[in-house]
Amino acid sequence: MAWVYLLVAGVLEVVWAFTMKQSNGFTNIKYSAITIVAMIVSFGLLSVAMRTLPLGTAYTIWTGIGAVGAFAVGIAVLGESVTPTRLGAAVLIVSGLVLMKLSAGE
């Protein structure tokens, strides 16, 4: 169950990163509120996952999901650039996440 909590926490990290961007420096109250709620729930689920998962594994997976997810949302929703270098970096992050999951032994 810890892995499910961690996955949801990572997805919520993507949500709060996107809505923080949309909040325009916390000047848009709707997006600011969504950002804060998503942050609180994301951190809460991360802390629950850390009850059984190692710190290094949980935190690495959480930030990796957030980084790659925000990268994908930036491209798909915000029209950010897609370059071979950026794609290669994302592939390396995902590779690291897979290796971290495999090394967790769970």
UniProtKB/TrEMBL annotation:
SUPFAM superfamilies: Multidrug resistance efflux transporter EmrE. It is a multi-pass membrane protein. The chain crosses the membrane at residues 33-50, 57-79, 85-104. Signal peptide: none annotated. It is found in: Cell membrane. Keywords: Cell membrane, Membrane, Transmembrane, Transmembrane helix, Transport. Belongs to the drug/metabolite transporter (DMT) superfamily. Small multidrug resistance (SMR) (TC 2.A.7.1) family. Gdx/SugE subfamily. This is Guanidinium exporter. It comes from Comamonas guangdongensis.
